[in-house]
Amino acid sequence: MKNLFLIVLFVFGTHATGRFNLFDFSNFFGINSPTTTPPSTNLKYVGGLKKLGLVNVVGFNNNECLAKDGGRGKCTTAPMCKELGGIPSGTCADGYGICCIVQRTCQGSINTNSTYFVNPGYPNSFGSTGQCTVTLNRERPNICQIRLDFEVFSLAQPDVSEHRCVFDRFEVSGTVNQIPAICGDNPGQHMYLHIGFGEKPAQINILTSQPLGLTFPPSRNWRIFTTQIPCDYTNAGLLTDKGAQLQAPPGCLQYYTGFSGRIKSFNFNFDTLSPTSSRQLSNQQYTICVRQESGYCGIRYRVCQDPVNAPPGLGFSLGPNTVPAVSATDGGCVSDYITIPCASDTYGSPINLNNGGNPSVCAQRLCGQIFSSVAGRAIPSDVYSTSSPFEIRYYTDNVEASAGEQGNLGFCLNYKQQMCSSTSNQIP
């Protein structure tokens, strides 16, 4: 008579980390489990979700997954998704897990990684006025930064006189770094909240009001993805791989990685230049950082091509607004400008004398309607910097109503890192 064996399928998890594993102990009883992925005869499908057989080993580590609507979810089990108050949106883990969308709205709290903050009724627009607040609690004590990705972000535009966010305003409190108030249209933008290791949580506040002269509320939408970033250090004082990949350097509101990319000021959009365009926001003081990649010693910035206006376009539109449009640098940039450390029109050397610059110096501040490191230029030119870390500092004051400053759009720049010509200044 054949021996009878009892096969026990254990399910265990820790809610603190959201880790779930399914194990079988068949090998202890002499039953072979040839692969971790069972043959098709061992699978059953229930509502699109694979049903586990007795010989499966599957892990759910809350890894990020792609939801059916194109959003970002966490891969977990159906019971865990329900416990998180999430919305199932497709499967993950080769069909064994649920891609769970977790989102919170006004007066709620975000307590876990990979959670959305959305307007009430999203994806429908939000027309109410008042204050919408969400509290950002750490999932673990070692969380030191929170990255916000604005997948959808549309609030009322600033006032047309001073470009201030007086009707609608997005603001953050409880952070170590200063977060500027923003409004308008910011899909695809991001920011880093440096929260340190204190116990006080950060808060996002979105204030909405009825702009004067409007008989209908603005169409508002937001869907903001939050990523909690740990600051884990080894005994040698170095960041672990995960922390090194995600964590932004101190003082960086925005952090770009990769050999090339696009950087835009908040609320930038190509528009016709007029006193009512007013897309450049007042009271912006922050730093944009670009990670220096291995083998690259410099960076090139090039103004974005303008699909709306005739050349030279308005990809760079920071006061003063002169006729004809020209570039300005350093002493000519007092109220609104960007700084690029030792900006030059030639890679690896100071400003080119042939282009009218001083051969022994480089520019720091850039402004005007033309992007160039040489003042008085009527045609945009590439700007290079070999100073590390790679960064842009953006400054606007709170006065935009004066002549030559109304209607500015801000800036849109494409960057591309430049390979080293020698071993000097290389990042290993």
TrEMBL record:
<keyword id="KW-1015">Disulfide bond</keyword>
<dbReference type="InterPro" id="IPR000859">
    <property type="entry name" value="CUB_dom"/>
</dbReference>
<protein>
    <recommendedName>
        <fullName>CUB domain-containing protein</fullName>
    </recommendedName>
</protein>
<dbReference type="Pfam" id="PF26080">
    <property type="entry name" value="CUB_animal"/>
</dbReference>
<dbReference type="InterPro" id="IPR035914">
    <property type="entry name" value="Sperma_CUB_dom_sf"/>
</dbReference>
<keyword id="KW-0732">Signal</keyword>
<dbReference type="InterPro" id="IPR058698">
    <property type="entry name" value="CUB_metazoa"/>
</dbReference>
<feature type="domain" description="CUB">
    <location>
        <begin position="106"/>
        <end position="185"/>
    </location>
</feature>
<feature type="signal peptide">
    <location>
        <begin position="1"/>
        <end position="16"/>
    </location>
</feature>
